[in-house]
Amino acid sequence: MAKSVKAVIEAPGGVRIRLKADRKSVAKIMRLFVSAETAQAAAPTNGAKGSHELSGVAEVDRRGHVQITAPDLRARNAMDAATRLIYVGLLARRVLLEETKSPRGSVIALLRSHKLYDGNTRRIIPNEEALVKEGRQSIELTPAGVAKAWSFVREIRNGASDS
Predict the structure, then answer these.
(1) Residues with Cβ within 8 Å of residue 140, at least 6 apart in sequence
(2) How many whole angstroms separate alpha carbon 88 and alpha carbon 75?
(3) Distance in Å from the first CA to the final CA of the chain
(4) What φ, ψ does residue 144 adopt, rounded to 5°?
(5) What is the pTM of this model?
């Protein structure tokens, strides 16, 4: 068994969290807390600005479904493309439809519409740490996931302007 380590996290407002676990688990938790703080700085502050940031990347169609309109996700392979599609799709639903929790079926439908739902990419949703899964019903982004999604949006937008 791995040697346990102690750590203390001090959050704004004087909240102190003490951890005792193996080194790898403590490092994972610390990364989540640090990325949650940077997510607030990285994300646009209001919905209007957020929807402007998503123009050219995602939009809502007449039926109220989120569509990814970016022609190039700037992905290295199919797994990377599926990961980016999941994050950007959840972020678009969060910003454009004002949903914090999205139905799992909508994410799967988005992957299928881009022909990226197969045995390999099916494992992304359960394995991603920045996604909160509520059983088989809904998925939402953690603050770290929001920051990661905004970084994907910036990469997609910058890649589109480079072409």
Answers:
(1) 90, 94, 100, 101, 102, 131, 132, 134
(2) 12
(3) 51
(4) -65, -35
(5) 0.71
Percent of the chain that is helix, strand, coil (3-state, to 5)? 50, 20, 30
Site of tokens 């998925």: 139
Q: What are the sequence ranges of the domains in the chain? A: 4-41, 46-162
Which single residue is written with the structure tokens 């004087």?
Answer: 14
Note the pLDDT tens digit of each residue in 20-59: 888 777 777 777 766 655 555 555 544 445 677 898 899 9
Confidence (pLDDT) at 36: 58
Tally of residues, the chain: 163
The greatest distance separating any two alpha carbons of the chain, rounded to the nearest whole angstrom, comes to 56
Q: Which helix (H) or strand (E) holds 30?
A: helix 23-42
Q: Are 47 and 31 in contact (CB under 8 A)?
A: no
Token pair recorded at residue 143: 């603050």
**Which of 48, 64, 35 is CA-nearest to residue 144?**
35
- Per DSSP, the three-state class of 27 is helix
What is the CATH architecture assignment of 46-162?
A: Orthogonal Bundle (1.10)
Give me Rg for the CA atoms of the chain: 17
For 99-117, what is the mean pLDDT? 94
Q: What is the pLDDT of residue 12?
A: 65
